[in-house]
Please model this.
Amino acid sequence: MNKPDGKKALVVGDTANIARVLKSPTEFGFYGLPDDKQWRDGFAKSIKLMHQVLMPALMPRFMSSSIRTDIAEISRDFFREMVAFAEVGKPVNTLIEDFVTTVIFKCIIGSKISNEEMPLFRSSQKADLSETGQASTVISRILNEQTPLSVELLKTEKAENLYEGWAIEQLMSLVFAGAGTTSTFITMALARMALNPEMQSLIAAEKNAEAAPFTDAFLKEVLRLNPPVLTISREALEDNFFEEFGVSKGMEVILNLYPGLNDTNVFGAHCDQFAPERWLQRKIESSAFIPFGYGPHICIGRHLAMMEASILLKELCSMAELSLTSGFELPNVEHLGRATEIIQPLFLKSTFKG
Model:
């Protein structure tokens, strides 16, 4: 077994070891970070506080019936606009981004933004500095509205003696990180649904059911084959051994999610095929489902992303049969750092159910 050798990074791709890194509270730190210790310690504290503040504030909302009612209403608005877009041959990519952003602001932050402000929060990875500044101004206004979430963030900023603007950054991260990845997820889910019309009736049948096993399996399979985030990084806090590799303190451990999500030992044969039933027919450990990460720093917005995607799909499938415009299949994506972004328009057609 090799001793820790001071390499800068180690890439991990197998399911078991990805789970080991993500759930470990002591061996590995928060993220791969710069060499500046003061900056690194400050960032680690900020991330820890974000989980401590946001999770308790958000979980009651995630579990409430009112959020489901709100998302269902926003989903029906989405359907009406989607039909209008189809009539004039417009792709629905921006419509999906606006749907996700509306859910975040109305259901989580507890505020609204105007139609004029909505474009500021689209495709955050391509926003220029002027747009980011304008978006920050909108977030500052919302903080002053004293919504329950903004009150908690401002209280924490003061109590923990954090830098001025920390609360704004947390809301900005909540919106931009959530909107970008969830938009990619829902775009792929809608495309997969349109390509598999036989699955739409199964999803529609679960609209009013207490449990939605097939819809959940469908969405998990979308995330398995088309994860919006491709890699997660951690920093080793101490020298250690990782399988046959030595891990030095300070080394960045890069987790490549794609191999783990295509592990035939976990997910069975034909991992390259879209087969939601694998989630219903096999016992798959929760630690193997890693598109949102795993362990103490798992994605804060995972419940919301799954909930809004599930409600949207069930609403759409109950009203119409969806298909792709002739000649179109799954949208192409571009890898931007650790995330993916849709780079091809998605054209959807709908046939109303009689």
Strands lie at 9-12, 231-235, 240-242, 245-247, 252-256, 320-324, 333-336, 339-342, 348-352. The chain has one domain: 22-231+298-352.
